[in-house]
Every structure is written in structure tokens, then in C-alpha cells.
Design a protein that fits this description.
The chain has about 80 residues and is mostly helical. The protein has a single domain, classed as Non-ribosomal Peptide Synthetase Peptidyl Carrier Protein, Chain A. The protein is about 60% helix and about 0% strand. It has 4 helices and no strands.
């Protein structure tokens, strides 16, 4: 479920095709995302899943897989 929510947010913000996105996909290199794009993606994921992501951890994300791990960790922390 987390992956689908993340992909939906990426598709919505960056106007890319879902099939272009895998856990190995990089936000900057592969998808051309900038910091504003990343912020919008994070907000969408937080809202959809009812979680809060640590801004310091967000800065370390480079791939979709990194983001997915951070989301899963936040869900465990938030008790979802």
C-alpha cells in the first residue's frame, strides 16, 4: 500500500508514468525532481497515510526505495 501511495504522489506532482517508477528510481536523476517537488510529494504521502516524516530524514532520500523505507519507519513509529 505504501508504494502505491508514494507512486500516486510522484505521478501527481511530477506528471510521470507509474511504470517509470521503481524502488531504484532516483528522484533527481531519473525523475528530475527538485526540492519543491519533494516537499509536495512528502505532503501528499503524509496526508494520505496520516503520518509525519522527519524533515532531517527527508533530506537523505535519493531513491524511491529510500522514501518507502522512511514511510514504513514513520508508520511503525506512529502506530499505523
Amino acid at each position: 500500500m505504501e508504494f502505491e501511495v508514494l507512486v500516486d504522489a510522484i505521478v501527481s506532482v511530477l506528471s510521470v508514468y507509474p511504470k517509470e517508477i521503481s524502488e531504484e528510481t532516483t528522484f533527481v536523476g531519473d525523475l528530475g525532481a527538485d526540492s519543491l517537488d519533494a516537499y509536495q510529494i512528502v505532503l501528499a504521502v503524509e496526508e494520505e497515510l496520516g503520518i509525519n516524516l522527519d524533515p532531517e530524514d527527508i533530506k537523505e532520500i535519493t531513491t524511491v526505495g529510500d522514501a518507502l523505507e522512511l514511510i514504513k519507519k514513520a508508520e511503525e513509529t506512529n502506530g499505523n
